[in-house]
Predict the 3D structure of the following.
Amino acid sequence: MMKATNTINLIQLSTDIQTNNLFLQDIDKGLSAVQKQIPSVYFYDKKGSELFEQICNLDEYYQTRTETKILKKYSTHIANSCTPDTDIIELGSGSSTKTKILLEAFLKKNGNATYYPIDISAKFLLESSKQLSNSLNKLNIKPIAGRYKNGLEYIFNLNPHTPKLVIWLGSSIGNLSRHDSVIFLQSIYSIFNTGDKLLIGMDLKKDIKVLLEAYNDNKGITAAFNKNLLLRINTELGGEFDLNLFEHRAIYNKIEGRIEMHLISKVNQNIFIKALDKSFHFEKQEYIHTENSYKYNLKEIDEMSKKAGFKFEYHRLDNKKLFSLNEFIKI
């Protein structure tokens, strides 16, 4: 007898980030700038999300397996520290592979749990939610497609008095500048109720060689992920980028304490984008800045939580101190 598939109802919030209009505006603005850039949020269409899942399984990409080890070690403790009626909310849930470890701990403790994964890629979110539901059939999954802040506001308006555990794994906060990360955490703090918790993964400063290898993998998956931005422009906006005429490059900016990802033009070239009826000139070796990934030490994490208004609860580290899982609470 085949197992019945649980019904998953995707909540689609109105989000301008997915519209061609905003995408068009951001591409026009970014490629017209003196230093060309494309916001990293546009990495995560369905194909980009799938490529990122492949990155997470690479030997060089220590972050996923290290954070997984930390979750396996401390998931029971985290679940035991929350009340049975706690809503579990995840920002940028992706495939929820790591989160499943924590969800299993909640189910073991309470018998059931409610999980709100929030992600910008609606198709990928729905697929991953169905897969998770089939493996954890006592989990109540309510996927929300939209921006993080919009998703959080929706949930808090829906269940204003239910305790919340918000999870933000994978060091995604590193994509924000140090200033913007505090601003974003302050926005979360502002809608939290007393006692609500934020569990946040943050990559730590370490040997530069380890960092560079993580973002310049031998299989070229990160390169494909980076170049997918150009493919999106071609597909959705009528761009004429030749992906073979750009190369992926990731460097470590020691002063800023961050990895920077770039797409480098191999030749002098003009790129026409039909939706803009406009061409953009690239000099040989000119680059598009596509992503930052800031790295932290423990003191910086403590200071960040304090600036955002939270009380710092703990750091959970792996044995090699490559990665940190941190809990902040509103008191």
Summary: The two ends are 50 Å apart (CA to CA). The mean pLDDT is 94. The first strand starts at residue 11 and ends at 12. Residues 62-80 form the longest helix (19 residues).
